[in-house]
Amino acid sequence: MRALRLVEEGRLALEALPDPPPPEAGQVRIRMRAVALNHIDLWGMRGMAFAKRRLPITVGVEGAGIVEAVGPGVINPAPGTPVVVYAGLTCQVCRACREGRENLCENIGGIMGFHVDGIAAETVTIPAHLALPIPDGVDWPQAACAPVTFATVQHMLFDNARLESGESILVHAGGSGVGSTAILMAKAIGATVFTTVGSGGKIEKVTALGADHAINYRTDRFEGVIRRLTNKRGVDVVFEHVGPDTWGGSLLSLKKGGRLVTCGSTSGITAPTNLFHLFQQQIRIIASFGANFRNVQEGLAKMASGAVLPVIDSVLPLQDFGAGLERLNNRQVFGKIIVEVP
Ligand SMILES: [Zn+2]
């Protein structure tokens, strides 16, 4: 059984591991087919783990495969079922888990591919409740984008920011995996979408996705453009995941009572906040990390119906995982980078 492992900080290697034993009670073994790359993989490569971990560790946080064996007592999913992997080791017994808010689990056992072994391997063995079935009509690269990318955006836009038809939203980094997904999901419900991109070449691409207005934030102050395009009112929602480079402008882009929802900070860790502006404008800041099982299913349903499909930048062989991360790091991507497991 081969797995892609982080053998020391910053260095990956495809290693041969012993074949796994049969799954134990409550477990399933999955033959992995596709893994999607995310910024969390970059943090993991650089050793920015939030908790202690031991190397080597198998990388890969988001992906899909087919159930090939189940342990005693497991009825669902049955062998042969295509599934995505929910990478958070949730407890299933705490109040948050019982109420379907799994990303707030009080006893989370870590994130696969980050704190504990991940899914960039030929096979992985996981608790059965973390294998969520894929509906018909969704291919492997698409399904691989469901448990983190689609679910995160679904949770941010609809559970947290409560975006509604007819509202306006500013989506940062519209060419990124979550950015492109946010554009598509917001347009699918009838929102007006403003988006920022980091290069002129991406303007045409985000417009093709349906964005109503695209702003190159390297050549234009986006908050000024937003104010001009909205008759100085601002937007209802800002979708943040960039951080210091955009944070101040994001707050200035919101209308009175607007909502800022954030799931990441790819340009740094801290950013100054104008507190007078924050309370006078009655802005709500909502922090979001991951998603619950329902969000994963909602994202998959959007793929299956064709309402929203992930934008795939490229599909690479497993051994090019590191090169894919380099592309992600250099912001040369448009959409998701997928690696196929042979
Ligand atoms: Zn829990």
CATH architecture of the largest domain: Alpha-Beta Complex
The unique ligands bound to this protein are: zinc ion
Report the sheet with the most strands, covering strand number, pairing sense and barrel closure: 7 strands, mixed
Q: Helical segment tally?
A: 11
Fraction of residues in helices?
Answer: 25-40%
CATH class of the largest domain: Alpha Beta
Rg: 20 Å
Task: Find the structural class using helix and strand composition.
Answer: alpha/beta
- Which stretches are low in confidence, meaning pLDDT under 50 for 5 or more residues running? none
Give me a quick take on this structure.
The chain is of the alpha/beta class and about 350 residues long. Helices cover about 25% and strands about 25% of the residues. The chain folds into 2 domains: about 1-145 and about 310-340, Medium-chain alcohol dehydrogenases, catalytic domain (Quinone Oxidoreductase, Chain A, domain 1), CATH 3.90.180.10; about 150-285, Quinone Oxidoreductase, Chain A, domain 1.
